[in-house]
Design a protein that fits this description.
The structure is a single chain. The chain is globular and about 65 Å long. It has two domains: 220 residues, Nucleotidyltransferase, domain 5 (2-Layer Sandwich), CATH 3.30.420; 116 residues, no CATH class. Helix 1 packs across helix 13 and helix 4 crosses helix 6. It has a six-stranded mixed β-sheet with strand order 5-4-1-2-3-6, with helices on both faces. By secondary structure, it is of the alpha/beta class.
Length: 352
Amino acid sequence: MDYRNIYIDESGNTGPNYLDKEEQYFILAGWLDINNEMQKAENVESLADLLGKKEVKSSDLAKTVTGKKKMLRVIEFMKEKKCVPIIAIANKKYCIPMRIIEVLLDPVYNDEIFPEFDEPKYYELKKQYADRLFKYLSHNELEKFAKIYRGKDISNDERENKMKSFIDEIYNSLSNKDIELARLIKGAKKKIKANLEAEVGNKSEILARQSPNIWLLYMFFLLVENNYSKYGYKFKVIHDEQSKYSSHIQDMFLFVNEHKYLFYGNLNHIDEIKFSNSKNTLMIQAADILAGSINMILKRKNINWKNDISFINILNTVIPYIKDSCNEDSNTVYVENLEVFLNIMKFYEQRI
Protein backbone atom coordinates (compact mmCIF):
# COMPACT_ATOMS: atom_id res chain seq x y z
CA MET A 1 0.00 0.00 0.00
CA ASP A 2 1.32 3.43 -0.99
CA TYR A 3 1.24 6.16 1.66
CA ARG A 4 1.09 9.92 1.32
CA ASN A 5 1.65 12.47 4.07
CA ILE A 6 -0.56 15.42 4.98
CA TYR A 7 0.93 18.12 7.21
CA ILE A 8 -1.57 20.26 9.15
CA ASP A 9 -1.52 23.37 11.29
CA GLU A 10 -4.19 25.77 12.43
CA SER A 11 -4.88 29.45 12.94
CA GLY A 12 -7.37 31.28 15.14
CA ASN A 13 -7.85 28.64 17.82
CA THR A 14 -9.41 30.21 20.92
CA GLY A 15 -10.93 27.03 22.34
CA PRO A 16 -14.69 27.09 23.02
CA ASN A 17 -14.92 30.89 22.68
CA TYR A 18 -16.99 31.13 19.51
CA LEU A 19 -17.53 34.88 19.89
CA ASP A 20 -13.92 36.05 20.09
CA LYS A 21 -13.80 39.46 18.42
CA GLU A 22 -10.10 39.28 17.52
CA GLU A 23 -10.10 35.74 16.15
CA GLN A 24 -13.41 35.30 14.35
CA TYR A 25 -12.24 32.37 12.22
CA PHE A 26 -10.83 28.98 12.95
CA ILE A 27 -8.72 27.60 10.11
CA LEU A 28 -7.11 24.26 9.46
CA ALA A 29 -4.72 24.21 6.54
CA GLY A 30 -2.53 21.43 5.29
CA TRP A 31 -0.25 20.38 2.49
CA LEU A 32 -0.87 17.00 0.88
CA ASP A 33 2.44 15.73 -0.51
CA ILE A 34 0.68 13.87 -3.29
CA ASN A 35 3.81 13.03 -5.31
CA ASN A 36 6.15 12.52 -2.34
CA GLU A 37 8.24 15.45 -3.55
CA MET A 38 8.94 16.54 0.01
CA GLN A 39 10.54 13.19 0.76
CA LYS A 40 13.47 14.29 -1.39
CA ALA A 41 16.42 15.73 0.53
CA GLU A 42 17.04 18.56 -1.91
CA ASN A 43 13.46 19.81 -1.58
CA VAL A 44 13.61 19.67 2.21
CA GLU A 45 16.82 21.70 2.11
CA SER A 46 15.24 24.28 -0.19
CA LEU A 47 12.25 24.65 2.13
CA ALA A 48 14.60 24.99 5.12
CA ASP A 49 16.43 27.81 3.34
CA LEU A 50 13.14 29.61 2.67
CA LEU A 51 11.93 29.27 6.26
CA GLY A 52 15.22 30.17 7.93
CA LYS A 53 16.93 28.64 10.94
CA LYS A 54 14.49 29.92 13.56
CA GLU A 55 10.76 29.22 13.33
CA VAL A 56 8.66 32.37 13.00
CA LYS A 57 4.88 31.99 13.23
CA SER A 58 2.71 33.31 10.43
CA SER A 59 0.97 35.69 12.85
CA ASP A 60 4.31 37.48 13.25
CA LEU A 61 5.34 37.19 9.60
CA ALA A 62 2.09 38.88 8.55
CA LYS A 63 3.07 42.05 10.43
CA THR A 64 5.92 43.04 8.11
CA VAL A 65 6.58 43.36 4.40
CA THR A 66 9.60 41.06 4.70
CA GLY A 67 7.50 38.50 6.55
CA LYS A 68 4.74 38.55 3.94
CA LYS A 69 7.31 38.08 1.20
CA LYS A 70 8.58 35.00 3.01
CA MET A 71 5.02 33.67 3.33
CA LEU A 72 4.50 34.07 -0.40
CA ARG A 73 7.78 32.36 -1.29
CA VAL A 74 6.91 29.35 0.88
CA ILE A 75 3.41 29.00 -0.61
CA GLU A 76 4.75 29.30 -4.15
CA PHE A 77 7.46 26.72 -3.42
CA MET A 78 4.88 24.24 -2.12
CA LYS A 79 2.80 24.76 -5.24
CA GLU A 80 5.87 24.22 -7.44
CA LYS A 81 6.41 20.86 -5.74
CA LYS A 82 2.80 19.92 -6.57
CA CYS A 83 1.76 19.81 -2.92
CA VAL A 84 -2.02 20.17 -2.67
CA PRO A 85 -3.50 22.76 -0.27
CA ILE A 86 -6.34 21.27 1.79
CA ILE A 87 -8.26 23.87 3.80
CA ALA A 88 -11.11 23.93 6.31
CA ILE A 89 -12.48 27.26 7.53
CA ALA A 90 -15.20 28.05 10.05
CA ASN A 91 -16.71 31.38 11.00
CA LYS A 92 -16.93 30.72 14.74
CA LYS A 93 -19.96 32.92 15.32
CA TYR A 94 -21.82 31.20 12.49
CA CYS A 95 -21.12 27.84 14.13
CA ILE A 96 -23.54 28.77 16.93
CA PRO A 97 -26.72 29.04 14.79
CA MET A 98 -25.62 25.91 12.98
CA ARG A 99 -25.37 24.11 16.33
CA ILE A 100 -28.80 25.48 17.32
CA ILE A 101 -30.23 23.90 14.18
CA GLU A 102 -28.48 20.58 14.81
CA VAL A 103 -29.61 20.38 18.44
CA LEU A 104 -33.07 21.94 18.48
CA LEU A 105 -34.23 20.75 15.06
CA ASP A 106 -33.20 17.15 15.62
CA PRO A 107 -36.12 15.07 14.25
CA VAL A 108 -35.63 12.47 16.98
CA TYR A 109 -36.41 15.07 19.65
CA ASN A 110 -38.64 17.52 17.80
CA ASP A 111 -42.04 16.41 16.46
CA GLU A 112 -42.24 19.46 14.18
CA ILE A 113 -39.31 18.17 12.08
CA PHE A 114 -39.73 15.51 9.39
CA PRO A 115 -37.65 12.32 9.93
CA GLU A 116 -35.46 12.73 6.84
CA PHE A 117 -34.16 16.14 7.95
CA ASP A 118 -30.84 14.65 9.11
CA GLU A 119 -30.03 13.20 5.69
CA PRO A 120 -27.17 14.88 3.76
CA LYS A 121 -29.50 16.07 0.99
CA TYR A 122 -31.11 18.48 3.47
CA TYR A 123 -27.84 20.15 4.44
CA GLU A 124 -28.67 23.20 2.30
CA LEU A 125 -32.01 23.61 4.06
CA LYS A 126 -30.24 23.46 7.42
CA LYS A 127 -27.82 26.09 6.20
CA GLN A 128 -30.70 28.34 5.13
CA TYR A 129 -32.18 28.06 8.62
CA ALA A 130 -28.77 28.82 10.15
CA ASP A 131 -28.40 31.88 7.90
CA ARG A 132 -31.77 33.15 9.14
CA LEU A 133 -30.79 32.65 12.79
CA PHE A 134 -27.45 34.37 12.15
CA LYS A 135 -29.38 37.34 10.77
CA TYR A 136 -32.07 37.58 13.44
CA LEU A 137 -30.50 36.51 16.74
CA SER A 138 -28.56 39.03 18.80
CA HIS A 139 -25.01 38.58 20.05
CA ASN A 140 -26.36 38.02 23.57
CA GLU A 141 -28.80 35.34 22.39
CA LEU A 142 -26.06 33.46 20.56
CA GLU A 143 -23.77 33.75 23.57
CA LYS A 144 -26.50 32.45 25.87
CA PHE A 145 -27.05 29.32 23.78
CA ALA A 146 -23.32 28.67 23.56
CA LYS A 147 -22.96 28.80 27.35
CA ILE A 148 -25.99 26.60 28.01
CA TYR A 149 -24.98 24.08 25.39
CA ARG A 150 -21.47 23.85 26.73
CA GLY A 151 -22.92 23.21 30.19
CA LYS A 152 -19.80 24.16 32.11
CA ASP A 153 -20.23 24.27 35.92
CA ILE A 154 -24.00 23.65 35.85
CA SER A 155 -26.00 20.54 36.71
CA ASN A 156 -27.97 18.59 34.13
CA ASP A 157 -31.26 19.81 35.63
CA GLU A 158 -30.11 23.42 35.53
CA ARG A 159 -28.93 22.99 31.95
CA GLU A 160 -32.32 21.57 30.98
CA ASN A 161 -34.23 24.44 32.61
CA LYS A 162 -31.96 27.05 31.06
CA MET A 163 -32.42 25.50 27.62
CA LYS A 164 -36.21 25.49 28.03
CA SER A 165 -36.10 29.17 28.94
CA PHE A 166 -33.84 29.84 25.96
CA ILE A 167 -36.31 28.11 23.61
CA ASP A 168 -39.14 30.31 24.93
CA GLU A 169 -36.97 33.40 24.59
CA ILE A 170 -36.01 32.58 21.01
CA TYR A 171 -39.60 31.78 20.09
CA ASN A 172 -40.69 35.21 21.31
CA SER A 173 -37.71 36.90 19.65
CA LEU A 174 -38.34 35.25 16.28
CA SER A 175 -42.14 35.38 16.20
CA ASN A 176 -42.27 38.79 14.53
CA LYS A 177 -39.34 38.08 12.20
CA ASP A 178 -39.58 34.43 11.15
CA ILE A 179 -42.66 32.67 12.52
CA GLU A 180 -41.90 29.43 10.64
CA LEU A 181 -38.49 29.02 12.27
CA ALA A 182 -39.86 30.17 15.64
CA ARG A 183 -42.48 27.41 15.52
CA LEU A 184 -39.93 24.75 14.57
CA ILE A 185 -37.61 25.72 17.43
CA LYS A 186 -40.54 25.76 19.87
CA GLY A 187 -41.11 22.10 18.98
CA ALA A 188 -37.81 21.18 20.69
CA LYS A 189 -39.01 22.09 24.17
CA LYS A 190 -41.15 19.00 24.82
CA LYS A 191 -38.27 16.51 24.51
CA ILE A 192 -35.34 18.73 25.46
CA LYS A 193 -34.49 16.67 28.54
CA ALA A 194 -34.04 13.47 26.51
CA ASN A 195 -32.18 15.44 23.84
CA LEU A 196 -29.60 16.83 26.25
CA GLU A 197 -29.27 13.55 28.15
CA ALA A 198 -28.46 11.73 24.92
CA GLU A 199 -25.60 14.15 24.25
CA VAL A 200 -24.07 13.57 27.68
CA GLY A 201 -23.57 9.89 26.93
CA ASN A 202 -20.34 9.89 24.97
CA LYS A 203 -17.40 12.14 25.85
CA SER A 204 -15.71 11.81 22.45
CA GLU A 205 -18.85 12.72 20.56
CA ILE A 206 -19.48 15.74 22.77
CA LEU A 207 -15.93 17.00 22.25
CA ALA A 208 -16.20 16.43 18.52
CA ARG A 209 -19.33 18.58 18.45
CA GLN A 210 -18.26 21.36 20.83
CA SER A 211 -14.62 21.96 19.85
CA PRO A 212 -14.31 23.62 16.44
CA ASN A 213 -10.82 22.27 15.83
CA ILE A 214 -12.05 18.69 16.27
CA TRP A 215 -15.21 18.62 14.17
CA LEU A 216 -13.57 20.83 11.53
CA LEU A 217 -10.71 18.33 11.36
CA TYR A 218 -13.29 15.64 10.58
CA MET A 219 -14.55 17.78 7.68
CA PHE A 220 -10.93 18.28 6.59
CA PHE A 221 -10.46 14.50 6.53
CA LEU A 222 -13.64 14.10 4.49
CA LEU A 223 -12.22 16.42 1.83
CA VAL A 224 -9.17 14.19 1.54
CA GLU A 225 -11.30 11.05 1.55
CA ASN A 226 -13.74 12.29 -1.08
CA ASN A 227 -11.21 13.87 -3.43
CA TYR A 228 -8.17 11.60 -3.17
CA SER A 229 -9.26 8.09 -2.14
CA LYS A 230 -9.66 7.31 -5.85
CA TYR A 231 -5.86 7.16 -6.14
CA GLY A 232 -5.72 4.22 -3.76
CA TYR A 233 -3.33 5.83 -1.28
CA LYS A 234 -3.46 5.61 2.49
CA PHE A 235 -2.84 8.93 4.21
CA LYS A 236 -0.71 9.66 7.25
CA VAL A 237 -1.65 12.89 8.99
CA ILE A 238 1.06 14.86 10.79
CA HIS A 239 -0.58 17.54 12.93
CA ASP A 240 1.11 20.26 14.94
CA GLU A 241 1.32 19.32 18.61
CA GLN A 242 -1.82 20.18 20.56
CA SER A 243 -1.15 19.77 24.27
CA LYS A 244 -4.80 20.32 25.17
CA TYR A 245 -6.55 18.57 22.31
CA SER A 246 -4.27 15.77 21.05
CA SER A 247 -6.04 13.03 23.01
CA HIS A 248 -9.45 14.41 22.01
CA ILE A 249 -8.47 14.38 18.33
CA GLN A 250 -7.39 10.76 18.66
CA ASP A 251 -10.67 10.00 20.45
CA MET A 252 -12.61 11.63 17.62
CA PHE A 253 -10.71 9.62 15.00
CA LEU A 254 -11.43 6.36 16.84
CA PHE A 255 -15.04 7.32 17.47
CA VAL A 256 -15.68 8.02 13.78
CA ASN A 257 -14.13 4.73 12.71
CA GLU A 258 -16.07 2.76 15.32
CA HIS A 259 -19.44 4.46 14.66
CA LYS A 260 -19.41 4.99 10.90
CA TYR A 261 -23.19 4.83 10.68
CA LEU A 262 -23.43 8.16 12.57
CA PHE A 263 -21.42 10.14 10.02
CA TYR A 264 -21.94 11.34 6.46
CA GLY A 265 -18.70 9.81 5.23
CA ASN A 266 -16.20 7.21 6.32
CA LEU A 267 -12.48 7.79 6.81
CA ASN A 268 -11.29 4.55 5.24
CA HIS A 269 -8.10 6.01 3.78
CA ILE A 270 -6.91 8.09 6.74
CA ASP A 271 -4.48 5.58 8.20
CA GLU A 272 -3.17 7.37 11.28
CA ILE A 273 -2.71 10.71 13.01
CA LYS A 274 0.62 11.74 14.49
CA PHE A 275 1.58 14.87 16.37
CA SER A 276 4.86 16.66 15.83
CA ASN A 277 6.49 19.82 17.14
CA SER A 278 6.44 22.44 14.39
CA LYS A 279 9.96 23.53 15.33
CA ASN A 280 11.20 20.16 14.11
CA THR A 281 8.84 19.73 11.16
CA LEU A 282 9.31 22.12 8.26
CA MET A 283 6.16 21.03 6.48
CA ILE A 284 4.05 21.97 9.49
CA GLN A 285 5.67 25.41 9.41
CA ALA A 286 4.62 25.63 5.76
CA ALA A 287 1.08 24.64 6.79
CA ASP A 288 1.10 27.37 9.45
CA ILE A 289 1.98 29.90 6.77
CA LEU A 290 -0.91 28.72 4.59
CA ALA A 291 -3.37 28.88 7.52
CA GLY A 292 -2.06 32.27 8.64
CA SER A 293 -2.30 33.78 5.16
CA ILE A 294 -5.96 32.76 4.93
CA ASN A 295 -6.69 34.17 8.37
CA MET A 296 -4.95 37.42 7.45
CA ILE A 297 -7.23 37.79 4.43
CA LEU A 298 -10.46 36.90 6.23
CA LYS A 299 -9.81 39.39 9.04
CA ARG A 300 -9.97 42.31 6.59
CA LYS A 301 -7.84 44.45 8.88
CA ASN A 302 -5.62 45.77 6.10
CA ILE A 303 -7.84 48.68 5.05
CA ASN A 304 -5.14 49.98 2.67
CA TRP A 305 -4.47 46.60 1.11
CA LYS A 306 -4.49 48.07 -2.40
CA ASN A 307 -1.27 49.92 -1.55
CA ASP A 308 0.43 46.87 -0.02
CA ILE A 309 2.06 44.88 -2.82
CA SER A 310 3.28 42.16 -0.46
CA PHE A 311 -0.31 41.66 0.73
CA ILE A 312 -1.75 41.76 -2.80
CA ASN A 313 0.63 39.03 -3.94
CA ILE A 314 -0.53 36.72 -1.14
CA LEU A 315 -4.16 37.68 -1.78
CA ASN A 316 -3.93 36.79 -5.47
CA THR A 317 -2.34 33.45 -4.61
CA VAL A 318 -4.59 32.42 -1.72
CA ILE A 319 -8.05 33.89 -2.32
CA PRO A 320 -8.76 31.41 -5.15
CA TYR A 321 -8.60 28.69 -2.47
CA ILE A 322 -11.27 30.53 -0.47
CA LYS A 323 -13.50 31.12 -3.50
CA ASP A 324 -12.98 27.52 -4.57
CA SER A 325 -15.13 26.37 -1.65
CA CYS A 326 -18.17 27.08 -3.83
CA ASN A 327 -17.20 24.30 -6.25
CA GLU A 328 -18.31 20.70 -5.85
CA ASP A 329 -14.82 19.16 -6.18
CA SER A 330 -13.16 21.82 -4.02
CA ASN A 331 -10.22 21.18 -1.71
CA THR A 332 -11.68 23.79 0.66
CA VAL A 333 -14.60 23.50 3.06
CA TYR A 334 -15.85 26.85 4.30
CA VAL A 335 -18.51 27.06 7.02
CA GLU A 336 -19.75 30.59 6.56
CA ASN A 337 -22.80 32.81 6.42
CA LEU A 338 -23.50 33.68 2.79
CA GLU A 339 -23.83 37.42 3.39
CA VAL A 340 -20.51 37.55 5.26
CA PHE A 341 -18.82 35.60 2.46
CA LEU A 342 -20.15 38.02 -0.15
CA ASN A 343 -18.97 40.99 1.92
CA ILE A 344 -15.45 39.54 2.08
CA MET A 345 -15.41 39.09 -1.69
CA LYS A 346 -16.73 42.63 -2.14
CA PHE A 347 -14.05 44.02 0.19
CA TYR A 348 -11.36 42.52 -2.05
CA GLU A 349 -13.26 43.35 -5.26
CA GLN A 350 -13.60 39.69 -6.20
CA ARG A 351 -16.18 38.35 -8.62
CA ILE A 352 -18.09 35.21 -7.61
